[in-house]
Task: inverse folding
């Protein structure tokens, strides 16, 4: 286990070069593996969760090479692996692979860490089965999931699938399976989730329609019986990685930083909007498109923040940002309410519980609700505590950010989790002027 201690009292300045976006890296690697010929993905995120996907692709017989941040993939026919595919801690890997395996009619067992085995999977089992995919779970809800091969020539059925909860992972799983259906497959979400899959599939020539409907937002994929074409793609900077620095510079007095090339997909920018409404000094300079996604530079200076209320579709647009958002709320004055965010209980940790525990330990006034939390912001945090990462990369990084502006240092135990999505987090913090100490300890 590693411990990271962050010392307060040091303003942040300079330019951050962000890692490639996690969601787009997953999709790029997977679609390249389903394509015919050699694809080249630059600014690919090399991290724990993307390595889980790459290792699984290797077990499926896909040939890839990662040279720094450049991923080269030679797409080919997939073979059924001898051993289960270990998706590590990554639900994105497991859920997207399930849809792709169904489309490719490749038998496999999808498994992962104990944490991943606790994540809900009924949400993909149900639509995949309705399409005719033979997929089994030991208890009908959790991994390991076993996908069997269909008889040759047996196509998947067309489907219209309403979701009670907006989820880009479930939507992407169903759309990927839809590539091999005999008719159109439609997913209706109560509101729009991130659309990286739709953008990339449509750039590769797949017919996709996306439109508002009476009960939400509908996305339809039309069958695409031939292989996808190989492609070259440059991945924008990760919006969710940027969020840590947006909060860091906002709460640390005297800070001013520039985040270059941030992905600005509207399904991802909820935290930027929330912080702006809280009084954050955040300037967004659009820089056009990269790989079919809006990108821009974001300049953030420290500011006095006010509490805010977040619920409904705003939750989806900042779904991964709540741990660090809660830190911002503790440094604000006034009350912050988050409601209709019960889905946070089904991430790498129960993030409602974990962030409440974290903020409590650091001296905040926080109340846990079944579907959210309330923070009575005191314009600061006491700090001076050793806190657990709870096996969750985003809790670990949020705790570290709190240490920048607390009265006393904050030590994060289990800081190695940060490498799941952001291996260079501590290095970047140092480069911006933060003061940290990293220690390795024996877990035995
Ligand atoms: O599609 C994706 O890449 C993701 C979608 C979100 O999950 P849900 O679809 O479960 O909301 C998000 O929390 C996850 O980190 C990445
Ligand atoms: C929830 C996350 O990812 P996943 O669902 O892929 O585990 C995350 O990265 O915050």
Result:
């Amino acid at each position: 286990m590693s411990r990271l201690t962050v010392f307060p009292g040091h303003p942040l300045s300079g330019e951050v070069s962000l890692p490639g976006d996690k969601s787009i890296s997953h999709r790029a690697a997977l679609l390249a593996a389903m394509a015919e010929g050699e694809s080249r993905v630059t600014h690919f995120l090399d991290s724990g969760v993307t390595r889980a996907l790459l290792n699984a692709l290797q077990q499926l017989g896909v040939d890839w090479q990662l040279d720094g941040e450049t991923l080269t993939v030679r797409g080919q026919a997939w073979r059924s692996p001898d051993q289960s595919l270990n998706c590590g801690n990554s639900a994105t890997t497991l859920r997207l692979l399930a849809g792709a395996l169904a489309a490719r009619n490749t038998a496999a067992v999808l498994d992962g860490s104990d944490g991943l085995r606790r994540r809900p999977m009924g949400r993909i089992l149900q639509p995949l089965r309705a399409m005719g995919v033979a997929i089994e779970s030991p208890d009908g809800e959790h991994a390991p999931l076993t996908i069997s091969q269909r008889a040759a020539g047996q196509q998947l059925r067309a489907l219209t699938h309403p979701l009670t909860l907006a989820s880009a992972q479930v939507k992407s799983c169903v759309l990927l399976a839809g590539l091999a259906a005999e008719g159109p497959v439609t997913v209706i979400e109560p509101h729009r989730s991130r659309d990286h899959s739709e953008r990339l599939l449509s750039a590769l020539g797949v017919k996709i329609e996306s439109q508002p409907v009476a009960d939400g937002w509908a996305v339809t994929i039309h069958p695409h019986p031939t292989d996808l074409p190989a492609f070259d793609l440059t991945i924008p900077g990760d919006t969710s990685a940027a969020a840590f620095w947006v909060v860091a510079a906002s709460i640390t007095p005297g800070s001013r930083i520039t985040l270059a090339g941030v992905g600005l997909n509207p399904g991802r920018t909820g935290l930027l909007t929330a912080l702006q409404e809280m009084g954050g000094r955040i300037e967004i300079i659009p820089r056009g498109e990269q790989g079919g996604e809006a990108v821009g530079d974001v300049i953030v200076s420290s500011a006095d923040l006010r509490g805010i209320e977040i619920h409904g579709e705003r939750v989806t647009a900042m779904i991964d940002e709540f741990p660090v958002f809660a830190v911002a709320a503790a440094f604000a004055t006034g009350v912050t309410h988050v409601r209709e965010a019960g889905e946070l209980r089904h991430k790498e940790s129960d993030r409602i519980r974990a962030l409440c525990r974290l903020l409590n330990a650091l001296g905040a006034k926080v109340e846990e609700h079944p579907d959210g939390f309330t923070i009575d912001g005191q314009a600061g945090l006491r700090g001076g505590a050793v806190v657990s990462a709870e096996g969750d990369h985003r809790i670990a990084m949020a705790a570290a950010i709190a240490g920048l502006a607390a009265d006393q240092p904050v030590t994060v135990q289990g800081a190695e989790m940060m490498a799941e999505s952001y291996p260079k987090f501590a290095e970047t913090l140092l480069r911006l002027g933060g003061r940290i100490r990293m220690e390795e300890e024996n877990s035995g």
Residues 23, 26, 92, 167-169, 172, 194, 319-320 surround shikimate-3-phosphate (ligand 1) (CB under 6 Å). The mean pLDDT is 97.
